[in-house]
Amino acid sequence: MPKCSSCSKTIVPKENFVRFVCPSCGGVVIVRCRKCRELGRPYKCPKCGFEGP
């Protein structure tokens, strides 16, 4: 099961979330839960260190 890249919460099936590749390096899939997206919590790519809202 994927985990949110911002809060590390386990994403359960059918939960509203997004999944996208790192906009900087494209080498890591970033997963964000609905709450972190709405609150604009930051995330950090573990490969290249890119940080985004």
Task: Write down the domain tally.
Answer: 1
Percent range for β-strand residues: 25-35%
* Distance between the first and last residues' Cα: 23 Å
Instruction: Characterize the biggest β-sheet.
Output: 2 strands, antiparallel
Mean pLDDT: 95
Shape: globular
Helix percent reads 10-25%
Radius of gyration based on Cα positions: 10 Å
Number of strands: 4
Order of helices and strands: EEHEE
Question: Could you explain the architecture of this structure?
Answer:
The protein has 1 helix and 4 strands. The longest helix has 6 residues, at 34-39. The chain has one domain. The chain has 53 residues and is an alpha+beta fold. The relative contact order is 0.28. The mean pLDDT is 95. The strands form 2 sheets. The chain has a two-stranded antiparallel ribbon. A hairpin with a 6-residue loop joins strand 3 and strand 4 (51-52). The termini are far apart.
